Input
Amino acid sequence: MALPFVPGIRRADRDNTIDIFIGPEHDDVLREGEWQKFFTEQPQPLTDEERREWMAQLTGVSLGSDAFFPFGDNIERAHKSGVCYVAQAGGSVRDDHVIDTCDKYGIAMTFTGVRLFHH
Output
């Protein structure tokens, strides 16, 4: 997309900014006083057609987590980004709901059984 990010932007901030930019809430990162935190110049928001084309090219995406997905809405959001494969630790009391949501979209999911994330 060749977005004009400010030098030194952290990867997480860049990735979150892209996610917001391509979505319907793009004004959250494009309004005056906000865009300057992320971009060297204010990019034009995508048209609906450009957004559809961009999202349609995202296929075969893999998603991994060193913890578990506690809710199906995480999978709903992943599906919107072209996720087809999920690897996660498992162990949530809601694993059945997450499995059902994966099944709904034909997303292959595996439980690694390894949890690296601790509170």
Remarks:
- The radius of gyration is 17 Å.
- Residues 11-56 form one domain.
- The mean pLDDT is 91.
- The chain has two domains: 11-56, 61-111.
